[in-house]
Amino acid sequence: MGSVERPRRVVVPPGTFVPHSGARIAAPSTTGPAATRQLFATRTPELLGRLRRLDAAVDDASVRDIASWLHEQYVSRGAPVPVGFVAPCLLGSPYVDHRLGLDGRILGHCAAHDVMPPPFDGARMLARSGAYAFVEVYADGLVLPVLPDGSVVRP
């Protein structure tokens, strides 16, 4: 049996620029241990439910309402706010995953051949694995997979 090459994870301090060369994980740009603790806190069943309903949301107003509610959930508990989420898509062929940006961007459903823009591209294969409910994506490149029970997988 031959050797297997795997991509390396590169951990950098907050604010450090690393040219995009595949997946990377950056240290969270938080302020202190309380914010870091909130970053890895278990996600609530209500938050998981809202993210699951994104596939069923057919109009832009519903998507914006869900995005606004999600943003408020992170802000109210003092956690860093992700720029968006990547999750498996339940619409069926040709779509395999979707993304939601919390800055008001509309949900985008992606087919297997579509290219996701950075920083979402680093989360795509994790979301496709089927092991996670969704993957949180942060502006500095940090991706945090969230299990179906709401627990966060640490990088």
- Say how many strands there are: 7
What fraction of residues sit in β-strands?
15-25%
What is the mean pLDDT? 75
Helix and strand sequence: EEHHHEEEHEE
Chain oligomer state: single chain
Rg, please? 15 Å
State the end-to-end distance.
28 Å
Largest sheet: 5 strands, antiparallel
Helical content stands at 10-25%
The coarse overall form would be globular
Strand order of the largest sheet: 5-4-3-6-7
- Assign the structural class, choosing from mainly alpha, mainly beta, alpha/beta, alpha+beta, or little secondary structure: alpha+beta
Uncertain runs are: 22-28
Topology:
Elements: E1 11-12, E2 25-26, H1 33-39, H2 45-52, H3 60-76, E3 84-88, E4 95-101, E5 108-111, H4 124-128, E6 134-137, E7 143-146
Parallel strand pairs: 1-2
Antiparallel strand pairs: 3-4, 3-6, 4-5, 6-7
Account of the protein in words:
The protein has about 160 residues and is of the alpha+beta class. The chain has helices at about 35-40, 45-50, 60-75, 125-130, and strands at about 10, 25, 85-90, 95-100, 110, 135, 145. The chain has a 5-stranded antiparallel sheet with strand order 5-4-3-6-7. A hairpin with a 5-residue loop joins strand 6 (about 135) and strand 7. The protein is globular and about 40 Å long.
